[in-house]
Amino acid sequence: MKRYATHVIFPTLIVVAGLAAYWRSFTVPFQFDDVPNIVENSAIHLWHLTWMGLVRLARTNRPLPMISFALNYRLHGLDVFGYHAVNLLIHLVNGLLVYVLSLKILSLAVPKVEDRTRWQIGFLAALLFEVHPIQTQAVTYVVQRMTSLGAFFGFFGTWLFLEARTAQDGRVLRFIGAMVSVGLALLCKENFFMLPVVLLALDALFIPGFIGRVKRHRWFVAAFVIAVCAVTLWVASRYGAYIASEQRRYGLTADERLLTEARVVWHYVSLLVMPLPSRLRVDYAFPPSRGFLDPPSTLVAVLGLALLAVAALVYRKRHPLATFAFIWFFGNLLIESTVLPLDLVFEHRLYFPSLGPLLLAAYVIVSLLQRRVYLLALAGIVLVCALTLATVERNTQWNDPASLAAQGLEDGTAQLRMALTVGKAAYKKRDFATAEQAYRMLAYPESERSQLIYAQDRAEALNGLGLIARDRGDLVSAEQLFKQAIAIYPRLKSAFINLAHLHMQSNKASEAEAELHMALAIDSNQPDAWILLGLLRARAGDLAGARASYTEAIRSDPGAWAAYWSRGRAYFDEGRFRQAAADLEQVVKLRPREPHALLELGICLEAEGAGQEAFGYYRKALEINPRQREAHYRIGVILVRQGRYQEGEKYLRAELQIAPHSGALRRLGDLYLSRDVERARGFYQEALAIDPKNAEAAAGLAALSSRP
C-alpha cells in the first residue's frame, strides 16, 4: 500500500493540483515577448517541417524552445490553446521530476529520516512547486517555455548526476545522460550555465571524500576550471563593450548592480514566502542601490546574504538540507542576478531555483507536524489550496494583457517599456486615449529618463501615435509621426509599411511603392510589405505581378494568411478557381473562425462545380456568424436548385430579414413562379425597386405579364 501511495497516488495528486491551478491559463492570449518570438516570427511558421526550416531554428540562441513553437504552429497555427497545453504539460512533468528529485536529495541529505516521512516531504515539496503563484510567469507566459523546458532538462540532469554518484553500476551511462541533459538545458536558456558548478557543489556536500576526488582527478578539474575561465574571458572580450554600454543605459555601474541584486534576492525570498497576487508583477522598476546605505536596506541585504553563506558553510554537516537549499537557490540565480546588464527582477527566474527553498520549507513543515498526522494533512491542504487559488487569480489577471501591464504603470513599479505594451494592447482594443497616453511616455520622455529608452522603442511609440492619428482621420499628423519614427530609427520596418499604406489610401502609388521597397531592403522577409506591394500591382492591372508578390509573402512567412487570401482572390479574378480554392483552404486552416474566408472558399468551390462541398462551408460560416447575409443567400439558391423549396425559402427569407437584396427577392419570385403568381409578381417588383437593372427579375415579371 505504501508503494502504491508513493508511485501512483502522490504523482496523480501532483498532476491534479497542477491542472487545478492552471485551468484558467488556456485562454491567455499572446502578449509581450510572445509577439516577436511567436506571432511575428516567420522562422517558426512552418506548415511543412523542412530541414532548411529546422536548421534555421537550430541556429538561434535557444533552439529547442523555438523548434517546439514551430511544432505547435505546424499542428494548430496561432491557436493559443495548444501552446498553453504544451507549457502546462511541461510544468506537470517538472512537478513529477521535483517529487523524484526531492526523494533522492532527502535520501542523501537526511538519510536517517524514515521512508514515510521522506515521501511526505517530497510530495509536499512537489505540490508547493506545482501550485505556487510565483511559477505563473514561467508557465502561463508562452515564451517562457524557454525557462520551463530548460528546467525539465536541468531537473532530469541533476537526478541522473546524483544517481550516477550513488549507483553501484551503470554510472558511466548516467554521467553521460546527465551531461547531455545539462547541455540540452543550455540550448533552452543560457542561465543554466551555472548548473555544472552547482552539481559539483552538491557532490562536495553529499558525497564524502571530495578533496580526495579532486586530487585524484586534478587534471580533469584543472581542465574544467580552465574551460570555465576561457568561456568567461571569451564572453568578456566579445561582449564587454556591449555590456558596458548597457550598464550605462541602465544607469548602473557593476558594483551598484551587485548591491541592488542583493536586495532583489531578498525580494525573491519574500515572494516565495508571501506570494499574494497583488505583489506579483510582469515587470518591475526596482529602485537601484547607489551605495551600502543608499538605501539603508542594502547593507542589511548584503550582511544577510553573507551570514547565510557562512551559516551554510559552517553547518553543512549538521544541516546539509539547508546548505543544499542555499547552494541550489543562489547558485542557479547567479547568472541572471549579478553583473550582466539584464532587467533587475523577473519572476520566471525563480522557477528552477525555487526547488531549494520549497524543499526546505516542506521539510520544516513535515518535521514540525509529523507526529500529528491529521494536523499535518490539514495544514498541507490549507496551504496548497491557498496557493492554488492565488495561482488561479494570477492566471485570471494574465487573461487581460492591457490591465496586466497597466497595473505596473498605475503604481509606478513597471519599466518604461511596459508603456509600449500598454499602448499596443489598448490600441488593439480601440482604446485610443489609453494607448496615446502610454505611447507619449516613450515618445516624449522626461529628460532624466530618456537614457533608459532604446531608440527603437521611442520610434515604435511614435509609430503607434501615427496609427492612432490615421485611424482618427488625421492623415497629415499620421504621416509626420511615421516619418519622425523613421528618422529616429531608420530600420523600423513597420513605420515604412504604415507610411506606404497611408500613401495607398491617398492614391500616391509611386511613393507607397518606394516605401515598401525600402522596408523590403531592410528585411526581405516582410509579408505585410509584399502583400501591400501585391495590392498596388493588382490596382495597376498586373495580376501576374500581384500573385508573384503574394507568393513572396508566403515564402517569407508560410503563416501569412492574408497573403493566401489575396492570392486566392487574384486567382479567382483570373477564373482559376481550383488554385483560388487551394489558397482559401489554407486561409481557413490558419483562420478557422473567419466566416468570410469560409464564405469565399464556398464560392470558389461552387464555381468549380462542387456545390455540395460549398454548401458545407456556407453552413460553417453561418455557425460562426448567423448574420452572414451572403451565406444565407447562397444556401437558399443551392436548395432551390435541388428542388428543396421550403428549406430554400427559409434561408432566402432569413437573408431578407438581415437586409433587402434584389437577388434574394428575384429567387423568391422564381420559387413561386409556378405556385403563386401574385406572390411571384410581388417579389419581382420588390427586386426591381431595389435594383432596376436586375435583368432576371425584369424577365420574370415580363414572363408573368405575358400569361393569360
Q: How would you sum up this structure, described in words?
A:
With 708 residues, the chain is mainly α. It has 35 helices and no strands.
Q: Detail the poorly predicted runs.
A: none
What is the C-alpha radius of gyration, as a whole number of Å? Answer: 32 Å
Kindly report how far apart the N and C termini lie.
Answer: 95 Å
Strand coverage percent: under 5%
Please report the number of helical segments.
35
Main β-sheet description: none
The global form is elongated
**Based on helices, strands and strand pairing, what is the structural class?**
mainly alpha
Average pLDDT, rounded to a whole number, is 86
Helix content: over 70%
Number of strands: 0
Keywords:
708 residues; mainly alpha; 35 helices; elongated
Topology:
Layout lengths: L1 H21 L11 H6 L11 H8 L4 H14 L3 H30 L5 H17 L4 H5 L4 H22 L4 H16 L8 H12 L3 H7 L1 H33 L3 H20 L23 H18 L5 H14 L21 H15 L3 H26 L2 H11 L6 H11 L3 H12 L11 H17 L3 H14 L4 H13 L3 H14 L4 H13 L3 H14 L4 H13 L3 H14 L4 H13 L3 H14 L4 H13 L3 H14 L3 H11 L4 H14 L4 H11 L3
Helix pairs in contact: 1-5, 1-6, 1-17, 5-6, 5-8, 6-16, 6-17, 8-9, 10-15, 13-14, 14-15, 15-16, 18-19, 19-20, 19-21, 20-21, 21-22, 21-23, 22-23, 23-24, 23-25, 24-25, 25-26, 25-27, 26-27, 27-28, 28-29, 29-30, 30-31, 31-32, 31-33, 32-33, 33-34, 34-35
